[in-house]
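Q: Start with the shorter request: fold the first protein.
A: Done. Sequence, then structure:
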Amino acid sequence: MKNNLLVYRVLANVVGVLLIVLVLVGLPLNELHRVNPAWFTEGTDAQQAGDWISRTLGVAHGWLYMLFLFAAFALARRAKWPVGFTVTTLLCGTIPILSFWSERRAARRIEEEFAEELAA
């Protein structure tokens, strides 16, 4: 259980950070020129940085999110979580900032229910 929890927590935090950088930095820098070209004209350093962040972190987030789903599902099966708790945990990885709440919520539940096994 200890290893399952550790893998889940690491992946949840990495995926959460990547998603925040992607959604709050990369995508705005890359796409704001479409809203108002005066903000960031296409081809500027800011737009190109946003394009790089969007492409690179977008792919990394996608692959790591798949690993996160497997880790979260494995933890859910091992801990015998109800379907609602499991689905909420899996979906929260898609919402910036909410993934951190979900990770803490799941970790707290594991720490409470499996305190003896984690202490060993």
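Q: Next, the second protein, separately.
A: Sequence, then structure:
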Amino acid sequence: MKGYFGIGAEEISKAMNLGAILRTAHAFGASFAFTVNAHHKAQKVFDSDTSRSLKNVPYYGWDRLDEMRLPAGCSLVGIELTDDAVDLPSFRHPRAAAYVLGRERGSLSEAMQAKCDHIVRIPTRFCVNVSVAAAITLYDRTLCMGGYPERPVMPGGPGLDAIEAWESRRR
């Protein structure tokens, strides 16, 4: 996959959600994970992070938004249901990106949204769980940035020729 990415949440309060985000970040190959102003209860993720992600993915826990530091050239992408957000299926992911999600039962703060280079929405009828939103976002990034072949016109998977061509490009 081209580039790198990180994923995190602002003001997250539940350890199970943060653990699921960390596990998802680890599974999709994130370069880092982060929180901004996380509730102290959310930081007790060790029981919910079953893949022990913190041993494999760098984690940054910033107490305030003004402490957040991203690598040079890294675009901040807010995942939020706003009227002017770009629908995720229409969004071109930056090569270097940090995705930030809002807290449970809430939204990204106005200050965080102002800091974002892009605001993207998952086109659902209502908000999904924050850890589900993280998984959907990273799956979409993988599809778009992973160099997978186009989906076939007919139901089913790609033919053997397409799979072999794709595998040879990955080597």
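Q: Describe the second briefly.
A: The domain at 4-170 is CATH 3.40.1280.10 (Alpha/beta knot). Residues 130-145 form the longest helix (16 residues).
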